[in-house]
Amino acid sequence: MWFLEFYKKLCRIGLHQENGHNDNQIENMELEKKYSTVRKNCAYNFPAMVVFVGAKNFHIDLYATFFCLCHDPDVPVRYTIALGFCEVCKLLGSNVYLIHKELVALLQDDSLEVVDALLDHLTETLELMTSGGDNSGLDNKLMIVPDLVPALTSAEQRVANSLKWRSHEKLLQKFSCLPHIISSDQIYYRFLHRMFTIILTNNVLPVQKAASRTLCIFLRYNRKQEQRHEIIQKLVEQLGQGKSYWNRQRFLDTCEYIMEFFSKSFFCKYFYLSVLELTGDPVANVRMKVCNMLPKLKSTLKLPADKHLLQQLELCVRKLLCQEKDKDVLAVVKRTVLELDRMEISMDAYQKRFFEKDLLDQEKEREEHLLLEMEQIEKEKQQSEARSSNEKSYERKRRDSKTGSALPKSLPTVISGSSSGTQTVSRESKKSKLIRSQSFSSQAIHPKHGSLEKGTNKSNSVIGVGKNVLLPFVEDSLKIRTGSASASMSFSSATTMSSRGPGNTGDQKTNNSKEVQSRKLSLKNRKQKS
User: Fold this and answer.
1) Can you tell me whether residue 282 is helix, strand or coil?
2) DSSP symbols for 384-411
């Protein structure tokens, strides 16, 4: 379309960029101002061109033009496109992720005027960026958050170092939307400690109040109880008990914000007594500020649960009436006492009477309990995930150990098999030798009884040498043959002992005793024959 192409040419009129520099500068300053005004008007009408083209065709038709306008060398052009940035985000809808780099670039712009132009609608812009579209909210958040957090912190640092304290105040107020955009851990580590530093070191009262208000919101939506207790402890110790009266006054301002954002029970649990302690502050301005807060303190009490806190309040008021020397503080105390007398305290027994008044407080308290429950659920979820991961790793290690032990075990089984094979072979060879020696000895003693000796056991063949069957032989041959038989018996007993091993020591002893007895019998027979 010629109209769209003509608009693109107008957005680049007066620019001839090569390698990021303006090579062909227009010598006529009036003409250059006109070109800058044309580009500024194009930036002003850019949302209308998005409507004309449509969100689906934005990336093809207008993204390059939008990029040029966001990086225009003239500050008024960038300022104008920053003013309409939120409107462009609304028109793009689910395609808003296409321009998140341009948002980061404008937040990091060298001109603080451009950053200030973004601040008016920064909350809405960030919410659209991180939740644009029904199905792409998580993807958008994962894409933009890693670049967004450093851009916001650098923008705050640059604004803080400048003299534009109103821009700084505005930016700190806009930071209150961060709990809906990034996680509480990111807020705790990247933004919360910075708020403490601003409260303690900045000299501009509106900036300090904006930082304390944002800090209370961060505390309100923090999901970890340990971090909440740490923040509360820092508030009490560094502000409420600080050496500077200025810090103690900022503590009282912070307590007012806590009463606004938190439930009555939360304030009474963590901050009530710390505020009452400041009624004895050495600085009159601090005591005066506390006296003005006394009606608010009384409104946070619920009887009969907070009866001891009410007694502490009445005791502090009596001390102020009796011991206060500053006339201005004393006048505030007298006026406050009249107001305290007219006040009614909510009681648990008559809660229905104050239902409409305490409905908001009940909602806050319910949300606080919900945060605690969510934290407990997250802890249980993390513990279950850690347990399952440990079980999986244990199972994996056990499988690896099984597979690893199976490989080395297969090798020794083969080796043991071969050794057992060799042992069985040696045993069989020894048995065959034993049988041969036994058969040889039986044949040498008497050939007729060889068949009988083959059918008998080894022990019987050994014992049968000294029986009466051997009597009809000649003495000389008997001596030779009995010697060979005894040698064969000793050889066979040695082989049987070696083949049986250490586990058969009892059998070896019985066999040896039997051999000794057989030898004695054979000697007796010889003597009788002779």
Assistant:
1) coil
2) HHHHHHHHHHHHHHHHHHHHHHHHHHHH
Beta carbons within 8 Å of 337's beta carbon, 6+ residues apart: 317, 321
Name residue 497's amino acid. M
Instruction: Please give the model's pTM, rounded to 2 decimal places.
Output: 0.66
**pLDDT recorded at residue 355:** 55
* For range 22-47, the mean pLDDT: 80
Q: Which stretch, 123-132, 135-144, 266-275, has highest mean pLDDT?
A: 266-275
Interval 337-359: pLDDT, tens: 999 888 877 665 455 555 555 67
Domain over 1-17+24-182 is classified CATH 1.25.10: yes
SS3 294: helix
Reply yes or no: is the peptide bond before residue 472 cis, omega within 30 of 0: no
| Res 17: pLDDT | 46
Question: How much is the pLDDT for 422?
Answer: 45
Residues 39/11, Cβ–Cβ less than 8 Å: yes
Instruction: Tell me how far apart the alpha carbons of residues 14 and 19 are, in angstroms, rounded to a whole number.
Output: 16
Strands 21-22, 346-347: pairing kind: unpaired
Whether the CB-CB separation of 268 and 300 falls below 8 Å is answered with yes
- The predicted model gives 283-290 an average pLDDT of 94
Best CA proximity match to 57, nearest among 17, 90, 91: 91
Chain-centroid distance, C-alpha 1 = 53
Angle CA(474)–CA(479)–CA(485) in degrees, nearest 5?
115
Residue 85 · residue 43 · CB < 8 Å: no
Q: What angle do CA 419, 422, 427 make, to 5 degrees?
A: 125
CA-CA distance, 256 to 271, in Å (whole number)? 10
Asked if residues 222 and 238 have their Cβ atoms less than 8 Å apart, the reply is no
pLDDT per position as a tens digit, 307-345: 899 999 999 999 999 998 999 999 999 999 999 888 877
Whether the Cβ atoms of residue 179 and residue 218 lie closer than 8 Å to each other: yes
Identity (one letter) of the amino acid at 338?
L
Question: What's the token pair of residue 420?
Answer: 């057992």
b/e map 425-450, b = 16+ CB within 10 Å: eeeeebeeebeebbeebbebbeeeeb
Map out the domains of the chain as residue ranges: 1-17+24-182, 429-530
List the single range of 110-114, 230-234, 364-368 with lowest mean pLDDT.
Answer: 364-368
The number of residues making up the chain comes to 530
